[in-house]
Write a structure and sequence with these properties.
CATH architecture of the largest domain: 3-Layer(aba) Sandwich
Helix content: 25-40%
Number of domains: 2
Number of helices: 10
Strand order of the largest sheet: 1-9-8-7-4-2-3
Oligomer: single chain
CATH superfamily of the largest domain: Type I PLP-dependent aspartate aminotransferase-like (Major domain)
Distance between the termini: 15 Å
């Protein structure tokens, strides 16, 4: 096999033959942006409870108590003010976007669109025939726009962390706005600090910072959001039962889901929330991600072949880091060598189309492993 040219016009070693020294490798090589690394302790806890938990009815006390543990744990983790409630339903964040067009948006929404995922809720609202076309504020990838109060808008849709680009934004109610503030926190929740007083609905899925699996959505809802759900349900607006947030609300108050959930997902989620709360809460979990981010971005800034994709340091995500490489370095080859050596899922988001790596830094990922990843990349570049 001919050598693979890693740097242009130079003879290089084949990436297929490279073995990274074991003393450089991370202890755990999982850096995927979702599904994410699951801690071994979560698996051990699930196995211990499996005989009496798995394969049982989700409407019986065994599972409902675990759902209650999730709801109470999230209330504590996010220090939810009085009157806020935790809702959960099947289908993931994509399902929640559709549900929100029925029972959170009364007439019109405003959306900040600055990447693949932040644009999807805007598309869902635009395609819904029973509400007005949304107002959409965009910015270039690698940046984020700012919400502004707008007449007629009754819901402001923000995104805490744009998973596709590695941009995070502060969650603050738009000045002078009277509508609800709904935040897509799919990859940000649990890994970024947030003040519950700044949102009415903070929704996410558990396969990122919460080290569980997909197919479930959770939403932290203020009294105003609860009132919106109830009033739109009472208005007679037709809603498919799967997207009916009033049905979700009623079932959540009973510590259950409308239809059968994945029990393992709920158990893994409960274990992760417990781990976060027992070690100091959101300041602990977000602190772990912040430390990992400092390591990754400091390495990239000091490198002569890599640089953070997001130019404004304040906008660089603490949970999903995107690192660009110089034109004479092929990031796909780096990812290939890493994978061959057990360091997986560092590939960039496919639709972004950049010569970069994307590194998850969720709370379960040890900061020492992020440092080891950086050392591995240096070794690969030096040996290709």
């Amino acid at each position: 096999m001919a050598p693979f040219d890693f740097r242009k016009n130079k003879s290089m070693s084949s990436p297929d033959t490279l073995q990274i020294p074991t003393d450089l490798l991370p202890r755990d090589g999982r850096f995927g942006s979702g599904p994410s690394k699951i801690r071994g302790e979560q698996i051990t806890a699930l196995v211990a409870d499996a005989p009496t938990y798995l394969g049982t009815s989700h409407r019986q006390a065994t599972v409902r108590s675990k759902v209650g543990e999730v709801r109470d744990g999230l209330s504590a983790l996010f220090n939810l003010p009085e009157g806020y409630e935790v809702l959960l339903g099947n289908g993931g964040t994509t399902c929640f976007w559709d549900a929100a067009t029925f029972h959170l948006i009364a007439e019109q929404s405003q959306h900040l669109s600055f990447g693949e995922f932040s644009s999807k809720f805007a598309s869902a609202a635009k395609e819904a025939p029973h509400i007005k076309d949304p107002s959409i504020i965009t910015s270039e990838v690698g940046t984020h726009p700012t919400a502004v109060a707008e007449e007629g808008v009754d819901l402001y849709a923000l995104t805490h962390n744009e998973t596709s680009t590695g941009v995070m934004m502060p969650i603050v109610r738009p000045a002078g706005a009277t509508g609800l503030v709904a935040v897509d926190a799919t990859s940000g929740a649990g890994g970024l600090m947030v003040d519950a007083n700044e949102f009415d609905c903070y929704y996410f899925a558990p396969q990122k910072s919460f080290s569980s699996d997909g197919g479930l959505w959770l939403a932290l809802c203020s009294p105003a959001a609860i009132e919106r759900i109830e009033s739109l349900a009472a208005s007679g607006r037709w809603t498919p039962a799967f997207f009916d947030l009033k049905i979700t609300l009623d079932n959540s108050r009973l510590n259950q889901t409308y239809n059968t959930p994945a029990l393992a997902t709920i158990h893994l989620l409960a274990s992760q929330i417990k781990w976060m709360n027992e070690n100091g809460g959101l300041s602990f979990s977000s602190g772990r991600s912040r430390t990992s981010a400092e390591i990754l971005y400091s390495w990239a800034e000091a490198s002569d072949f890599a640089t953070p994709f997001v130019t404004n340091p304040a906008d660089r995500s603490n949970v999903v880091g995107t690192i660009d490489f110089s034109d004479d370095i092929d990031a796909t080859v780096i990812a290939k060598v890493l994978r061959a050596n057990g360091v997986v899922d560092t590939d960039p988001y496919r639709k972004l189309g950049r010569n970069q790596l994307r590194v998850a830094m969720f709370p379960s990922i040890d900061s020492e492993d992020v440092a080891s990843l950086c050392a591995c990349i240096n070794w690969i570049v030096g040996n290709l």
